[in-house]
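Rotation project, supervised by the postdoc (A.L.). Task for the rotation student: set up a whole-complex structure prediction and record inputs and outputs verbatim in this book. Inputs entered:
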Amino acid sequence: MTDLTAPESRTDDNEGMQFLETRMNRLVTLWVPLIIIMVVLLFPFYWMALTSIKPDKELIDLETTNPLWTWNPTLKHIKILLFETAYPRWLWNTMSVAVASTMLSLIASVGAAYAIVRIRYRGANWIGAAIFLAYLVPPSILFIPLASIIVSYGLFDTLFALILTYPTILIPFSTWLLMGYFKTIPFELEECALIDGASRWQILTRIVLPLAIPGLISAFIFGFTLCWNEFIYALTFISNADNKTVPVAIVTSFTDGDVYRWGSIMAGALIGSLPLVILYAFFVEHYVAAMTGAVKE
Amino acid sequence: MADTSPDRSQAASGIGIAWARLQTNRNWLGFWFMLPAAAFLIVFLAYPLGLGVWLSFTDTRIGRAGEWIGFENYTWLLGDFSEGWEFWKTGDSVFWLSVFNTLLYTIVASAIKFAIGLYLAILLNRHMPFKAIIRAVILIPFIVPTVLSAIAFWWIFDTQFSILTWLLQGAGLIAEDFQINWLGDVAMARGSVIFANIWRGVPFIAITLLAGLQTVPPSLYEAAVIDGATRWQMFRHITYPLLTPIIAVVMTFSVLFTFTDFQLIWVLTRGGPVNATHLMATLSYQRAILGGHLGEGAAISTAMIPFLLFAIMFSWFGLQRRKWQQGEGND
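Outputs recorded:
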């Protein structure tokens, strides 16, 4: 009942507070600041997209033509990027590393989260707290010792170096997120299954996981984004241009100071962002749930 | 955690045979379920963390195992503590500059990110058409990989062909032939990287704080309106106290990730001009990986740990105070 009336009363409340607020007032206090913030937030992407389709001549000409628009769009930069560089290869590397390490972390986190929340072995609370602390260990203080570990395991300059190290960033986060989801699944369901003779493994795969699918999707999408975004490990552990990921390759292989490269660099940044933006567009709610869920815990 | 314990005691009283059997070997079962995650975190997180501290006490270089040299790296970086309070003057000036830069970068960027983020969250919490779309669009800077948006900023901050300079010239704020050296001048470079960091961080803070705002019961505002509270009083005495726990968590994350930032700086300035934007993370990369002095680089990263612990403790006690105010049991 309260749930039903709450949104309505809030509307009333807001209108009540806004009875003195004129349209002009609302424009100044809400829309003007909001639009300014949105323009600032989106401008770099507009500029990125525009640069990638501008002809070379206009890129360095701020005098005779209006730099904020182009009447002669060209696909030249994108063509150079896709057919004359190893860009497709880098894209493929990034994609496969992101998928592989996200899957690995999800498998590991499901087990850990289930054990902490439901098996509740001795010391589970402490392990839960330790995993939260692991979330707070930033890659920038780990990359030096990790580099020497990677070299000594013979993984240097292979994609496995990334596939195996990225889960350290993802596991704490997704375990924490999944713990929240598992807690909401009624305990009685598991009790029934236990009495019917199901094993813990069967309970996990047949009852808990199907019910936690929204949580799994959230964890996957957020983890995938983090992998795609990762830079310092990929920069440190990979040296061969063929094994680079998109962020590292664009920074290291493209920037030779030639001003005419800007079109291709921007096209590379744009195409490198698109998969994430498309994925995000389909799963906005899951993404926001992952982001806020981990924080709210 | 509190919600499962009554169920558990209930289950224990209505014992099934399977349940009893499971309870006896629960610790083993937990062990097997934990194994994959624990293996990853021990091999690639806990062990490197320890190894990093150990490396900082050695003179390891790339391709050459080091020997234990005690505090030599720290004495070289921080200075000689036997000199008294002037010890930092005997240390590495670039290191101390990077500490200063890191603190400046973290404090200024976090404070502005918090202010704009909270303001944006309050704006978004109002009633407006297309709310869902606006919220989704605002989060885009957070989705796009930092390096790729940083590259866009690199081009925006270009010395010769900066669109920002063009816009400022067009608005008549600076002279037509005046060029701003966005990333080449000490103060401008610091300002530019801080701006890029704020740009990237605001959406995260705004959207998470918005989620917190949406949990504030509207009835509290109704009561306040009836009592004749002003908008500021409502914010100060309702919104802010109820948001404190979320603010503590969000700002801890924000401070941690700003403090250890690497990507943005590496793409935009690589620490230049004259080390004015070198953060501790970028300096440790430069010394350890590019310069080959793994031991020294590890000492710089290890020196970041006390700051991180401070940030975590700060947020932890923020949360504790909150719980105590609400009178919740500590579970």
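Student's summary: The first helix of chain B runs from residue 4 to 13.
Supervisor addendum: The CA atoms of residues 35 and 41 of chain B lie 10 Å apart.
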